[in-house]
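call fold(seq) -> tokens
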Amino acid sequence: MEAQIALTGNVGGDVEFASGAGWSLARFRLGSTPRWRKGDAWVNGETTWITVRAFGQTAVNVRDSVRKGDPLVIVGKLRTRAWVDEAGQRQERLQVEVTSLGHDMARGVSTFVRPERVPAAYIDDEPLVPDEFVAVETPEEDAASEEEAVVSADV
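ret:
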């Protein structure tokens, strides 16, 4: 059984994008902060951060459409990423693999643009964006940014 979830929140940073022959990956962090009224004032709860990952054409669309601070609605598969840190302790982090996402229309206005389909015969090996716009992960950057050790496995 797959654990499907829906989330709302704000993009916490720039979208990281990487691609290669036949694959694309976009990754970002989504923050969601509960709010409630306490007397005459609004109170913020603790922000929950979750890593969001998109693959294939969805990843390309995320790269071209999602920016830091954007309010999003996300539907996807809940996954647990597990690893052993430098101290030998097992760590876990929840992630969402995107099934569908979009801007939260309750919080603003958005415009949908359907990209033109390009026949496969016209696609060459050149990247769709210049290298300076593509953030590629290396194991060292991933470990530093995610506070993870080199040893990791998806659970």
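The CA atoms of residues 31 and 49 lie 5 Å apart.
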